[in-house]
Amino acid sequence: xxxxxxxxxxxxxxxxxxxxxxxxxxxxxxxxxxxxxxxxxxxxxxxxxxxxxxxxxxxxxxxxxxxxxxxxxxxxxxxxxxxxxxxxxxxxxxxxxxxxxxxxxxxxxxxxxxxxxxxxxxxxxxxxxxxxxxxxxxxxxxxxxxxxxxxxxxxxxxxxxxxxxxxxxxxxxxxxxxxxxxxxxxxxxxxxx
Length: 193
Hints:
Helix content is 18%, strand content 51%.
């Protein structure tokens, strides 16, 4: 009986705290556009040696080795500190960094992911860093795969109507035969609707 009373008491306290947090602003729905850059070479160099050796020897990939593209983002707030984001992106390259694949003519790497943005500050803050964790799928030619996007970002709130954001993600393949490890950088803008 004591366990049941303790559980009900804890649940009541949790629900009171949960309802008290709804008074703070939650992000409204927004749509955005981003320029994205995929860097396969640097991620492969780090995996084949180490981060410290890549930093020490300055073995970062040059811009001609990047895959450039664009993305469309949909973002909706769940709580004052957590947003749900869905992103559809395409990058174009002759060598997308997949193991065992030779360079071919330029093709699109399509990626679709859903992730949580775990913000440091509540929604109305002007400058707000956040962490990213999610799951996604990719398609290159006729091969499908799964990825885990992990990383962080920063958003700059513009008059509570729009925002500028930049993100850095490390995309980990769940299906290594379809994907390869890579970094993704993005810069974009989103607005409320």
